[in-house]
Amino acid sequence: MIFVDTHTTERPDHDGTRPNADELLRALQENERAKLRVYIGAAAGVGKTYRMLQDAAQLKGQGIDVVIATVDTHGRIETEEQIGDLEIIPLKEIEYRGNTFEEMDISAVIERHPAVALVDELAHTNIEGSKNNKRYEDVIELLKNGISVVTAVNIQHIESLNDAIARTTNVQVRETVPDSFFKNADEIIDVDISIDTLRTRLRQGKIYSVEKIEQSLNNFFRKGNLAALRELSLRQVAHFQSTQDQEYRTREGLDQAVIPEKVMVCMASRGSAKKILRTGSRIAGRFADDDWIAVYVETSDEEMGRISPENYATLQDNIRFATSLGARVVHLKSNNVADALLGFARHNGITHVIFGQSARSRWEIFWKGSIINRFLSEVKDASVHVIPLEREST
Description:
It is built from 13 helices and 14 strands. It is α/β, with parallel strands linked by helices. The chain starts with a strand and ends in a 6-residue tail after the last strand.
């Protein structure tokens, strides 16, 4: 099962729109096999550890034996508060080259044998002298011993994405988890917050120490990087889901499901849309037999006679370009752009939605981001692709 969680770490309320501990509890009660839930995020600070601790507290309240095998709160107060009275298995001290390191004590966890163990930082490399080289190997051992696991990892640590992440962020990630590990997962959940919210949390010192803030904002946490990482996270969990579904149907002797794919590119009534239209064309060619739709929403400020000549000319150029690529262009009228796009997507069974994330102004980023977040939270059957756009000259 794949979910997208768009709640921030500072909203502990539960509104029923995201996966919760009740669903994990039902999965635990279905059979005796140990379960694996994985939270994936685009970057540090999106709220993976916070969600794990919320799960644990809810499970404990429902009478499930749950322990913390290892959790790193990174000194975040709101995350530490979620630990509450949860049982923590003491870490094991290991001497290495004259220094003492602490690692998860897998033998102690197995001996304690809880129903569920929380294991943070899935991609972590264990210090020499540990039972296993990698933490994901510890998780596999816990599962083999009948202990269900809730764990978390950032998208950049998935092995098959290593080269793509390096090209996108100019950061070479050395700790990775093989894609085969995720085949063991019963649930993979994408934990997502808006780019501006994540960068605000970084500025507030809630992700890294003060001396690392500016460097992070100007490097890994650049808006273009984060937009690309968010897209990779969404695409990767969708890929995992597709793989799981195909393997299940093959194992059960069922015909592979034929799901009609429909691609929709969301154009604004101003600004070049060529980059996202090209992306739409590529995705449509891969999934939808070149049948795809380019949609723009005309507000009252953009009606004929009120739209500026420059914006009108750019819009017509976008329409011509979309048509040349084989798109069917749809013109909607509404003063609520998000409602219009959401309604169209639902009514037409859209399965891939493509947005451009412009860096021209903070207001436009906020405005477009709010629409993207609504799609993430309200359209459960569509993959959302966010394409970072270069700053346009004024």
